[in-house]
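Subject: mismatched residue count in predicted assembly?

I count 703 residues in my input, but I want to confirm that the predicted structure covers every chain. Input:
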Amino acid sequence: MTPLQIVFILVALVTILSAIFVVSFRNIFHAALWLIVTLMGVAIIFALLEASFFAAVQILVYIGAIAIVLIFAIMLTRNIMSDEEMQINRSWGIVLLLVLIFAVIFISQISSSDVINTILIPLEFQGQESIIAFGEGLLDPAGYALPFELASLLLLGALVGGVYVAMDKKGGEKK
Amino acid sequence: MLNQWMYIGIFFIIAMFLPAVAIFLARILSPKKPTKIKNSVYECGMETYNPTWIQFKIQYYLYGLVFLIFDVEIVFLFPFAVAYGKLALFAVVEAIIFILILLGGYLYVWRKDALTWQ
Amino acid sequence: MKILEFLSDPIIGIEKWIVQLLENWGVAPEWQTFILYLIGAAILGTGALLFTLILIWAERKIIGRLQDRLGPNRIGPWGIFQPIADMLKIFIKEHIIPDGVDPIPYHLAPIISVASVLLLWSVVPFSDSVRGSNLNVALLFILGVGGLGELGVILAGWGSNNKFSMLAAFRASAQMISYEVPMAIVLLAIVILSGSMALGDIVKLQTIAYIFFLPLGAFIFFVASIAENGRAPFDLAEAESELVAGFNVEYSGLKFGMFYVADFLRAFTSAVIFSSIFLGGWRGPGAEQIPILGFVYLLIKTVIVWFLGVWIRGSLPRYRVDQMMAITWKFLTPLALALFIVIAFVAKLIENTNQWLQVLIFLVINVALFVVGFAIVRKFEKEKERKVVSTKKRALAQPTNPFTQSETGG
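Triage response: the counts match. Full output below for your records.
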């Protein structure tokens, strides 16, 4: 057991546990906090895989922006001081059984397939070159330039849509 | 690169550990005399009349939304900036088109008066 | 000669000695690095926290002098033991925990605030050979821990179970996230110039300091980092009379002390990062041969930038919240975006020319953009000028007190 494996197992356990807490806690704000722990766990896994750019992006965008917008949205839509609803419905036993069966099948098939289950090889680029290669590929017309521009259209749609819907409510508030 | 992240991981644990130890130490050293008045929530010196209900302005959500969109845009532009030395002028024009599309959205948001604090 | 060699780079000397010690004890190489990192991180973290004491004293003295009074001067010569006295006092204050607080966010918030500031110290290069971590995405990491700081503020507001503190926390975090956008765009422009996100590389590549390439970017970054820190003139979150003490109203004792420490340390940390990115960090005459000189240069540059921040804090009045948001969303962000677009375009065109010519062209672009931006803002300001409502001759309200009445009233 190399130290890398021990760290990975610990982080993976924490991530999975906090993901379970996200969906099972009653207090929605606590669920949001556990979501932040889950996202942090994913960022650490990215760092362990030497995908440093994605680890930093995960911290910056997910924890620094999305989690905060999520918390703002929670505050906006609920009366926080009093919510104690049941988070589980009555058929949870059967669902748990089905999920376990599915998980067993899924994990056994993935870990025995040759395509996905490979050993970690060190990256061919080190340090800054991996990001340079990423950048070149992203903007290469024969590479991912079209998805790059489409991503900006997607962001534009999100921005305009979000502001449009919110401004209606804001205008309604002022009246 | 793993070594660098390990350093940051160690530093993060130490950075969380140091204030925690300090606060714990202060907790031990400080007097503990909780009275009912001291423990009540600060409300400009008065008791609360009604159950607490916050009028949450939608302005915060709008700022968060615009910040999020710009954050993702900047994240997309970072690899472009790092690979800048090796890119042709065409790629630079591509990236500028990327920004201009979002600048158009930003102009819309500005004109809709979503950026003004009410 | 060995003493001189040790003195020119003491930290590497100590590191070599520790490695020798560990080798003699038969420790494996990975554990050697681990122990070295542990010791280095512990020393850096504790050093940064203890350095805050000097910072607090210096800032209080300087602000006192700016406000035409002496700062603390009773405890020790020039009041130098004042922060220690403050620290002792805060240590033994009672931790009043109000009813109904959420224990985990409430207790975690000061820790996360301090941790997010301390994490910034781990990527700064102190000299040619001494640095915390040469992360290859250091700039993104710096922006990311700004996000962690915002999270700390929100946790503090939520955990206090207090309407006012929650409102103040949202306001403070909205301010912090709004000012991250221009910062990030200026960092993009810097990466265009340097071709690398690692702070160590950025400092090494600055044969001409980047502040000459991008003075407008430096200005935007400086203003944005002051605002993100929450210092005057943007200290709305702390000194708003309608929100009492802001998001940390329910904290007492050392937990409040931690927020205070995070605030002061953040100012210095932003100054360190500013001088690493724009002023050339540890570069200076002779810094490559004698690494300890590099550390001294970094210290001097940082103190100058930090002093500028304290000067601004003591001089300018506070902005209203709508002015503050208008500054970032309507002035700084469009300006930074325009700067980035123009720089990206022009830098590709003049890529292969002489470096001094490049500097000149960049300077011209910066100044031109600043002038244009300012002119536009000035034009908008003029349009919103209100009509003058009264002249000097209107009748004033007369008090009925006979002792204060006079002919012209008032």
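Chain A is about 75% helix and 0% strand. Marking this ticket as 'not a bug'.
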